[in-house]
Amino acid sequence: MNEILGRDLQQKSIVGTNGTSFGTLYNVTMKPGSGELCNLVVDPHDQSSSMVTDETDDDRLRIPVSQIKTVNDQIIIDTD
Fold first, then answer.
1. What's the number of CA atoms in the CB half-sphere (13 Å) around residue 1?
2. Structure confidence by residue, pLDDT tens digits, 22-51
3. pTM, whole model, 2 decimals?
4. What architecture does CATH give domain 9-77?
């Protein structure tokens, strides 16, 4: 994946390869020691999208960054 600045990800929509709209990017988690990115934290549009992901204590979705396929106007994640 090409280098992308964190500020360019703010408020991007998260959409699955199957067309599912998950919500809007809220934050990204990382491992403090290595700086490795772990999860996208997403404000969900509705609860139906939570069947594919984990939820945080505040009802946000966690999507592993390994599922990211592309980042353009939206963040596309693999839902196959």
1. 15
2. 999 999 999 999 989 899 999 998 755 545
3. 0.81
4. Roll (2.30)
